Amino acid sequence: MPADIQVPPSSQQRFTEYIEKNGVSIPHPDSKEWHTKEAEQKAKDRNLFWAAPYDARFPQVRKQRHCFAYYVDYHRCNELMGADYKPCQFFQNVYKDVCPKFWVEKWDELITEGRFPAKFDR
């Protein structure tokens, strides 16, 4: 059954989980700790990083269409299948990984105003 699919958590969810579980803080982005081999190996061992999988529909470098498609897919999935349908989380993880935050904020505003250029009920 598709509802039983295990969707991997996004990088943000993994970081939050790791911080809550271990009580550590993430170093500042300018910190030299990020650029050591030991820190990189620890991060790989903890499996903290998640990246959106390659999608052959979007081979270009620019990610506008990729971002928009997954944003619409997420909202369409929620509309058609319901908010508690677990595979919809995958679309959300991908668009959060690919899209700049200000795009998502603008699209959320357009949805609330009823001016978003896509339909979610089809």
From TrEMBL:
Recorded GO cellular component terms are: mitochondrion; respiratory chain complex IV
What InterPro entries does this protein's entry cite?
Answer: COX6B-like, CX6/COA6-like_sf, Cyt_c_oxidase_su6B
Q: Which Gene3D superfamilies match?
A: Cytochrome c oxidase, subunit VIb
- Mind listing the UniProt keywords for this protein, alphabetically? Disulfide bond, Mitochondrion
Where's it found, cell-wise?
Answer: Mitochondrion
User: What CDD domains does the database record attribute to this sequence?
Assistant: Cyt_c_Oxidase_VIb
Disulfide bond among keywords: yes
Mitochondrion: is it a keyword of this entry?
A: yes
What broad class describes the main subcellular location of this protein? mitochondrion
Its protein name is Cytochrome c oxidase subunit
Query: Where is the organism placed in the taxonomic lineage, from the top?
Result: Eukaryota, Metazoa, Ecdysozoa, Nematoda, Chromadorea
